[in-house]
Design a protein that fits this description.
By secondary structure, this protein is an alpha+beta fold. It has helices at 3-19, 80-99, 147-150, and strands at residues 27-28, 42-57, 62-75, 110-121, 129-143, 159-164, 185-190.
Length: 194
Amino acid sequence: MSKKRKEIRNQILSVLRAARVVNPDFIKGNRSIPYEDNKLPAISVYTRAEDQTEEIAQAPRLLRKRIDLLVEVAVTGSDDEKVADNLDDLCEKVEQYLSSDDSLNKKCDDIILQRVDFDYIGEGVTKPYHTALLVFMVKYTDYAPRDRFLQKDITPFEGVDADWTVGHDSLEDDDLVPQEEDDQAHDTVNLPQV
């Protein structure tokens, strides 16, 4: 999992919990459907897709990325009009709090609400509920994955030392002409460490 993606998701959770948009215990960092009847209204924050949009720099490689981050708001009630109003009010609060800091405390470059999708969940649950899915486009920059080279049990590849003798493998030992020490080839390559 991308560390930056996790940081962005956790920052959104922190903002929404601190703002008490709904009971902070009912704000989750994953998609937990169906929601429990006695734990509504609720909010789930999760990502659906991530794209690399461009390469900004090389050595080390810096990438610009974009994720679709979803904030799903779920409410229940018997009066459809009140449920719709409650859902709209909660969506407005979510948008307001997430738009107040478009870098999410420097966790991303930008966050923009792209659209809101509404749904009604009535089958397979004991109590029907309504959802609004706020789809945010989050842009951020991150270095290419390299953690696997930095693990303590893996030694970073720093260079190579190679020796060889110039000659032909097809010749017999008695056909080989004795070579001087100067005829030995030796190369050492040291790689820069980032």
